[in-house]
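Internal ticket #5521
Category: modeling
Description: The requester needs a full-assembly model to guide mutagenesis choices. All entity lines are attached below as received. Residue total reported by intake: 352.
Assigned to: D.W.
Attached entities:
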Amino acid sequence: MAGYLSESDFVMVEEGFSTRDLLEELTLGASPATTGKAAAFFLADLGAVVRKHFCFRKCLPRVRPFYAVKCNSSLGVLKVLAELGLGFSCVNKAEMELVQRIGVPASKIIYANPCKQIAQIKYAAKHGVQLLSFDNEVELAKVVKSHPSAKMVLCIATDDTHSLSCLSLKFGALLKSCRHLLENAKKSHMEVVGVSFHVGSGCPDPQVYAQSIAEARLVFEMGAELGHTMHILDLGGGFPGVEGTKVRFEEIASVINSALDLYFPEGCGVDVLAELGRYYVTSAFTVAVSIVAKKEVPLDQPSREEESGSALKTIMYHLDDGMYGIFSSVLFDNICPTPLLQKDLKVSASLD
Ligand SMILES: *Cc1c(COP(=O)(O)O)cnc(C)c1O
């Protein structure tokens, strides 16, 4: 999905003109044979990205949003979000380079991958990226050596067993190892300035945020005891990107606001941030694909009645892209695309 867009890739449309209208315009009468454009393509409604931002500011006024670049690094999205003043959460050098190239200052970048290549830690040091996350001793030692002036954010594990995509499998220190890590950082003269977590993408239980905020409070206290000045709480991602999910964004926001009031009340001097990916972009993107083949198949396993000829049939469509390409989210994020347009030989699916 990533790619460099030129100005001509942007279309300004009038109020009320929808993605669906644009798709119709683009595909009407244009078969792959006549346009030569057989490949699937994406349409992005950047207005939807902007609306998400205003909704976020309204529901979580105390939280400063950072955009998780890995979710969708299209230049259009990055530029709009930079313009809206967001920070950026990057997981590697390529992403830091990309956002710095569009003018995002290093102070608005968090290098939020607890597992980093030494060369990329050096890159962050050289380009002024100061905020780095970590969750174990070996990673801390790498940063001590290659970026001693970095400000570290300790990433703690969360209970993400119910999320659609569990990140604690990969990331996050257990609460019981936090004291040791904080002591270690102190011994190495490394500043730990905050705590982060990620509840996993597609988190179905807002209480996991409250639980993680409470645990972060404990880690803040440990840090203070050991002489770290902790002032950043990073709530990570996991916020739904579309309407109609089991838990609505507003519900999660309300649980978070209560937990913040309890554990990090206004005026406590803690800067609260979140690293949102899917929340900002999922609803903005629509993919258009061509149907290359269509066949009638039985709806279920064949049964006796069906063998006698009264089988229920359905249509199976073969598209010009698949699971190994733009539909990988069907496998990894449990996303079920909903068709938007069905015309003679075309169908498009909205990835929600
Ligand atoms: C992917 C990712 C996010 C964003 O997750 P969403 O659930 O898409 O909001 C945030 N932080 C890190 C470190 C990530 O890798």
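Resolution: model delivered.
Comment from assignee: The first helix runs from residue 19 to 27.
Ticket closed.
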